[in-house]
Fold each of these.
Amino acid sequence: MSRNFILSVDGLSPTEIGNLTRLLPKSGSLLESGLFAKLDSGVLTSATAIWAEILTGKPWHHNGCAGYSAPNDSLNNLKVINEDELSDPTSWLLRGSEGELDVLINIPLVQPNKSTRIWLADGSLPTNLRVVPRSLFEAGPFRDYEPRPYADYATAFSSPSKNSSASIASEMKRIDCAVQLHRTAAWSQFIWRITLFDQLAHLAGLDILSAPDLSLFDELKLLMDHLDIALYEMLSEPGINWIVLSAFSHVPCGGKANINTLLKDGHFLRWLPATQAVNAGGRQEAVSAITKAPLAKHANVSMEACIDLKSTVAASPVSGCIWINRAERFKDGIVSDADYEIVYADVRDYLWTVLSRRFASVIIEENPRRTAKERNLSPDFMVWVEGVEFHNLPCDGSQSAHLPRTTHNPSGFVLTNCTNYKSEYKMTPTQVAGLIN
Ligand SMILES: [Zn+2]
């Protein structure tokens, strides 16, 4: 049976491939020998949602994942999505069988609950497990493996250069873990995600790989040398199918918008009085403190007790995702099936109009299965505005003039040696699985 090796360098754009391969003198030429396609993630900018499409081969409205979390039984009650919640099975992760293993390093959504998996946490799930099986702890670099060196991005931004260095050190450790597993585990599938390029894009800015005058460049260069040796060994293995991909990239942040504030201004949403919103953010922060997951602005803010659901017909509790407060779907929903289509069209048209007044490129993608009865966590529609960061809490700093350096852009790339690849120049995350199936 063929062996599949997938490396993710999430956060890099297609134009950064040259800078990447220049810093990988040995393995870079192997990468450049692969076929290239742009990866177009549509309206998705969350790593979790794009990885859900990669892992299931199905779009967000099929697999049910459009962001880091989704409302459970109420728009005030969010849950973190993991693979067991997806409507479609993560088919190509189930390959591991007797005597063969899947090695999964730092991959969103994936649970450590199968005996055929070696799993290193990405820090996004509400568990404090870091390495499974736990026997790995006994030796080598796994003992102090940490998915992230800081608790959240707010902490990281307080000292960007110190935390950039910490990110490099923690990624270095992850490379050591990957090298050891690659050599010693009887794997048939090896999926390994590097998050350093994403972290540095937020902490240090764009084009980090082509900034030799940057103070941390020497540390970064050491890491790239380390990665180069590892990658050369991994990619030159005979008969291996390999894919190197970036699920998304970054652009300078040109503005902020709070969709819930816009919905409030349009009389589609009402906040609860501040005194009642006591739990806002509380639970998600607790989860994040345990896992050291980044409390990213595009990820896991909680809406708990923020929205007055008796007076709300639509809300955006997850970045870019809009749900209609349907009675049939949510326990405190108020929109009846009879009114649903009218409310849906009103909310959609209103948001498009108010966002288009402020920003040049507004894209709305409707959920074609939004009225389907089957269990599906996906929102009614999604909004994406290029270079704009979405906020959703009542008091979240979206009114302040300060802008983050960068924000996510749904454009990445794929490089591969897979022989069934038909050069299409552009592919979607759902097509990535087809390269090796
Ligand atoms: Zn990012």
Amino acid sequence: MIKVKNILCIGAGYVGGPTMAVMALKCPEYNFHIVDINQDRIDAWNSNDLPIFEPGLDEVVQQARGRNLKFSTDVEQGVKDADMIFVSVNTPTKTFGLGAGEAADLQYWEKTARMIAEVSETSKIVVEKSTLPVRTAEAMSRILKSNSKNLEFEVLSNPEFLAEGTAIQDLLLPDRVLIGSEQTTNGLAACQELVNIYQEWVDKDKVLTANIWSAELSKLVANAFLAQRVSSINSISALCEATEANVDEVSIAIGADTRIGSKFLKSSVGFGGSCFKKDILNLVYIAQSYGLQEVADYWRQVIIMNDYQQERFVLKMIKNMFNTLAGKKILILGFAFKANTGDTRESPAIFVAKKLLEEQASIVICDPKAIDSAKHDLKDLEGDISYELDPYEASKDCHAIAVMTEWDCFKDLDYQSMHNNMVKPAFLFDGRNILNHQKVHDIGFNVYPIGKDSLTH
Ligand SMILES: NC(=O)c1ccc[n+]([C@@H]2O[C@H](COP(=O)([O-])OP(=O)(O)OC[C@H]3O[C@@H](n4cnc5c(N)ncnc54)[C@H](O)[C@@H]3O)[C@@H](O)[C@H]2O)c1
């Protein structure tokens, strides 16, 4: 039986960093060590300028860092010292060979497992925090247990359900925590060690335990269901535009049904983020590999609909701006995949920016937190791209504004001043349906929301 005191997390990213910081805050009697191979990231975690923007994160890190939370690049020493190891490395979609474009690329995971087996001198509990395909734990367990040192390794699956932008709140007050384990005496004892940690601040009835495969699958299914709601309402937004129905009114009407519920029914230019597409593709691949083609096709359609929604958005811009964007300057207002994060992975803004450049438009990108990431995402593209933190400066000489992120600060901008700065007729495409469309139309904009009538002059 392994008794836990020293906890290591491998991977100091959007999940590893906030998750361990909150655990350290709430569990002062345990020691937490977060390691990463990326020196810049670790340096930033040790500074006052953290590597990720997340509301409330600075305060949590400040309280725990130096007390029972430390960050370093000393992965092997960290492994040696730990009783419990969370593995929270990235699990990107495979780009080569069997399953390319769908399956998860598990080479980093396997290397991590082999390294843990190699350097360990004491028994450990290894916790999958990364989102992984069903039955990965089995492979990890076999690699770890094939070590010749007679050490005990128990593998748990503890998928993370936090959402970027609300990560700290989600971690402090989770809807549930899920822990999967082998249903053996040692597996259940390891599970109890992790249950004890969470129960320091999470209600007992919210800490769910399951078999390890159910835990792994539940994470993929949770993301698939969330993305499916977005694609479902986005499919209806196209129908609303064709029929003069209003997608916000439809959302309110159906969301008021308690069987359906109101969350994740906001129509938009589409979902982004590092997880939804990757995890659904993973689910599709798993279904296919078990010969369940209809199941795979069903879930793949969620992604097809999301691609369609982004394409539709750009086509609407081209069509309404007299079928040509060449030489026209367009303000991309927001680049993060959603509000309250600087993360731009799979952001619809990347797709829209690429398409606008293909049409030979000039683009200017404005985002309160994501300009550095945007520069990185677009660095290989040719065309006229500029970056500007000040939205008023950014609007100068633009023909159109495309709202790509639902930042609150965009709702209260002085659109009259921006309109004054722009070439007329001025166009506004609201990819997040966050503006008061009548008000901006009254200012003089030609307004194109999602799933509603356009307001033109
Ligand atoms: N981002 C989210 O909102 C979210 C939510 C729930 C689950 N997840 C899952 O959590 C996992 C991590 O996601 P993320 O967004 O934190 O990724 P990330 O890319 O932000 O962080 C991963 C970190 O792991 C580090 N790393 C990679 N290989 C390593 C190694 N061998 N040794 C040490 N460090 C290594 C990388 O340098 C990077 O800093 C993924 O599986 C993801 O699907 C993400």
Amino acid sequence: MGLDDFKTNQEVKVIDTSRKLRVGIIGCGWIAVSHIKALLNQPDVEIVAGADLIPGKAKAFFEKFGVEGVKTDYASHKEMLDDKSLKLDAVSICTYNRQHAIPAIYALEKGVNVLLEKPFTVTLDEAVEVCRAEKKSGKLLSIGFQPRMDENMKMIKRIVESGELGKIYYIQTGGGRRRGIPTPYGTTFIEDKTAGLGALGDIGCYSLDMVLNAIGYPKPLTVSGYKSAFFGTDPNYSHYKKIGHPEYAKLFGVDDFAAAFIRLEGGIILDFRIAWAMNLDTPGDTIIMGTKGSLRIPSTECWNGTVGGAMTLYHEVCGEQTQTEIPILKTKGDLFDLKIRTFLDAIKENGTAPVPSSQILFNQAIIDGIAKSAECGREVEIKIPKI
Ligand SMILES: NC(=O)c1ccc[n+]([C@@H]2O[C@H](COP(=O)([O-])OP(=O)(O)OC[C@H]3O[C@@H](n4cnc5c(N)ncnc54)[C@H](O)[C@@H]3O)[C@@H](O)[C@H]2O)c1
């Protein structure tokens, strides 16, 4: 088997512009910028509405992008979704984590397809409720993991599926930033009342998805987790000083580091660590160890769920230990465009969600298990209710 066997043909789709999709945006903050830019690149999308809890924020947001005719006079997601005149096909939910489940459930109940930003939710209970609403609605729900669209991420999955690694028995994943507690536009990432989860949910969900998607999302069984917040709660944390906000330390109510040992169905061990801040460059590359071969996936400096450099496959050829470098592949197009496009295509073609909730439910169950185990200080069993 050569490297070409792993390569994909990246499809170029012709978009049917005769059917336009009417789309709204819920939450007009930082990430909504990436959504609107990607939506504006789609020739079959009409952006018809936007809502934000902060009065005037949605209006100013659409004006900034020069998008006209967008209805924004809504006090929250609810009023917008109650407005039948909008005839919404889909919404992008770009609210902070604690406001993921509520608008997602409401939109699904109103028969609107949902693209929900990551992490799925804060708790497993919330994720279960969203999955149930999705099932009842018959509508599409996709979770916003744009790294899935990256050709290198697809390559990891193809390598696993090719059998080149044999039986997988141990995985180490995670990563982090040396100084990277996100406070780009305020404190919604760091306050418990808005974020609910810190590094664990924000970037931990990507690390988990990278490997779990590759191995087919086996069910998580048990977890022993740890979390801490030494940097976020420190008024002398250098980043707070740099941005002139030492008071953020008092507001910090989530984790800035988490680690866990997780048992997955099929006898696979998952060793995980994630950091928004640490006195280290990286807590390690991602490694997938198998009976025939192992894969090393370099971590990135600013951990955002992508691949940090060429991957290495460690295996034997004719009894000789050898290494094969898997060069970085270029993805055609922007990851956000692809995340939006695949979601819109699935709506139009009655297809399945590009990043289905049935998978991300397991991702959320692990995050929830880590938080619970860290709080009670012992290993916990992961119980996922039936949807
Ligand atoms: N996919 C990515 O690469 C990526 C990157 C950054 C953030 N995110 C995710 O996007 C989400 C939002 O992050 P952000 O940085 O844009 O936050 P933000 O605080 O800048 O914006 C969130 C906005 O949502 C609004 N809002 C909250 N609840 C609402 C409701 N019920 N109805 C209407 N508006 C509501 C808030 O008022 C706020 O303006 C987070 O969950 C984050 O994890 C994803």
Amino acid sequence: MGYLTLSFYFSFLDESRMHGVYRNFLIGIGSFHVAVNGSHMLKIDLHLHSCFSNDAVGTPEDLMKVLQKRGLQGMALTDHNTIEGCRKMQKIGSKDFLVIPGIEISTADGHLLGLNVAEDIPRNLSVEETVERVIDLGGEPIVPHLFRLLSGIKKEKLKPIQKNISAIEVFNGCSVPATNLKTAKVARAWNLGGTGGSDSHDPAYAGFAYTVVDSTDCRIDSVLSEIRKKRTWGEGVTIPLSYRRDRMVLSIRQFVHRGFKRI
Ligand SMILES: [Fe+2]
């Protein structure tokens, strides 16, 4: 109880950035996994799209600039079904800002993030096989936006992959707070760690959600190791409704345009 109270106390102290009320609520749950020690943590947006996704704008460099301005220490580029942007951005990271190559793969069962993946992985494989492919490539599979209608992996599908994943995305910037909370509860119930990512398709919203890593070691291996130890969590604020509504309209239009095929 004291630990939880302390977590809330620190989260109120750290309200100077753009992060608001939901952060405080979720960090309380997050403290189950993460020791709250103010500035001695890394904040990394682990779910971002650039112009290399065919439904997003902005270059990887644009994303990095915005995230640095917002005080984050890293990002994972997770374009839809391609690592082309990751290949082109290899040189943009620095010792103070971590850039993790990644991908968001459209599996037959919904979307899956692969962190530290440097090769394309075919789409439409089962989620079980896709998780194995990510691991074989030295990457870390993360289940994003669990309850999303068209692209979320169904909760029942967690069971067959549970032993091979360490974390699910407990805070997605495009999901409403109630859904993020529901996902956070699933992570706790299934003894999984959590990540956070803005799922931004426009640099203006990069960093709205991020992963808290209880470390100051700004290296890919170190961050992945913390995820594997289930010691990370996600927090942030939800992207404004006006933008999410416009994106939903656009997504439906693109879905129809593709002949009712999911991205
Ligand atoms: Fe995404």
